[in-house]
Write a structure and sequence with these properties.
alpha+beta; 2 domains; 7-stranded mixed sheet; 9 helices; 20% strand; binds 3'-phosphate-adenosine-5'-phosphate sulfate; binds magnesium ion
Length: 355
């Protein structure tokens, strides 16, 4: 049964749209000391923190009882060494949240021009993302900037938000400020939002034109010789690209893969720009985070695709902040997915050193 979730969808799209405007403008103003390295060596910028503050503030005003699993937390910003960064984040978040309504947003979701939030309010909003997750009830999951490395390079990144109810992703919204609106015209206008409510289909809407919504579908290969376009990570540390080469060979794919940061890969798959999402872990024991896959998975499923791990198991969003025992992610259209899964498993059997 499909849930309605009309209000949740509108709030989530409005919040993601605001965060996209914020992060695009931050990119143009970013200076060197506005990026810090987290304990796991990954980068985080004033853009990530302020986008999480904005989205969490909007969600908390509308759905005050819903917990949020967000990527970032404000611990570093509460220490004296983080005060300069903190002040910049507060300024950016307040500018964004008190700015003009974004189209499609209702008055009561945003904050008025005189409603700047205090430092504590915004740090607490960031920390609303500290929920541990779990298998029951409602929770949101937020990646304020997915693909921070892509963001810093001026390439693909995404603002990603999903609503999970009883461990099932029911709503996903992904904003891609740098993704061409038309995949067939890469030099054309950029910036789009993708969204899906389970049972209601998947859609794309340009960031600049919120009233032109188009349904998206995964592509269906017509001829047996049709070349699949593999969508892969950019960072070698995130996915084993040599494994992907063996899978491509097994599938008879000779065209070069498309490498792209972030859940923009799921969006490309959902609108038929790519044929396969393939992410095989590098064997370091890294556990995938739910915010890196929740919105993308419902989007692709609603666009007619299938998402599993490399064993063919569904992704389990009910185990906490990570996907736990899921190993790797394979996404593709219904007809293609079984072929890719078989190819992955064959390579795992025949080249165990790669698996
Ligand atoms: N070691 C390792 N293995 C797998 N995944 C990792 C790893 N380290 C980080 N991450 C997460 O990867 C997120 C970005 O994924 P991408 O697919 O965009 O990767 S890539 O940048 O294109 O390679 C990235 O998301 P963001 O931190 O939001 O950018 C991380 O959550
Ligand atoms: Mg990160
Ligand atoms: Mg991420
Ligand atoms: Mg992130």
């Amino acid at each position: 049964m499909s849930l309605n979730l009309a209000a949740e969808k509108q709030v989530a799209i409005a919040a993601v749209r605001r965060a996209c405007v914020l992060t695009s403008s931050v990119f143009n103003k970013l200076v060197k000391n506005e990026t810090v390295t987290k304990d796991d060596k990954s980068p985080v910028t004033v853009g990530d923190y302020s986008a999480q503050a904005v989205v969490n503030t909007i969600l908390s005003r509308t759905f005050p009882d819903d917990p949020i699993v967000g990527e970032e937390d404000a611990t570093d910003l509460r220490q004296e060494s983080g005060f300069a960064l903190r002040d910049r984040i507060i300024q950016l978040a307040n500018e964004c949240i008190t700015g003009e309504l974004v189209p499609g947003e209702k008055e009561e979701w945003g904050l008025g021009p005189n409603q700047s939030q205090s430092v504590d309010e915004l740090l607490d909003a960031i920390d609303r993302g500290n929920y541990d997750g779990g298998s029951t009830g409602r929770m949101w999951t937020l990646d304020p900037i997915d693909g921070t490395k892509g963001f810093l390079r001026g390439e693909q990144y995404a603002v990603c938000l999903a609503l999970i109810i009883n461990a099932r992703v029911e709503l996903g919204v992904i904003g891609c400020p740098n993704l061409p609106v038309n995949g067939a015209n890469p030099s054309g206008p950029r910036g789009c939002i993708f969204y899906a409510v389970r049972g209601q289909g998947a859609f794309q809407v340009p960031l600049a034109d919120p009233f032109t919504t188009t349904p998206t579908r995964v592509s269906i290969p017509v001829l047996p010789g049709d070349q699949l376009n593999l969508l892969e990570s950019v960072e070698k540390a995130h996915a084993k690209l040599s494994f992907n080469e063996l899978v491509a060979r097994e599938l008879g794919v000779t065209r070069a893969p498309t490498r792209m940061d972030s859940q923009a890969k799921y969006c490309a798959l959902a609108r038929g720009d790519g044929g396969v999402y393939l992410r095989i872990p590098t064997g370091t024991g890294y556990k995938e985070k739910i915010w890196d896959h929740a919105p993308g998975s419902v989007l692709v499923e609603e666009a007619g695709g299938i998402i599993t791990d490399s064993r063919g198991q569904p992704l389990n969003f009910g185990l906490g902040r990570t996907l736990g025992e899921n190993y790797g992610v394979i996404g593709a259209g219904k007809d293609v997915h079984p072929r890719v899964l078989a190819a992955v498993q064959k390579v795992q059997r025949e080249s165990p050193e790669e698996a």
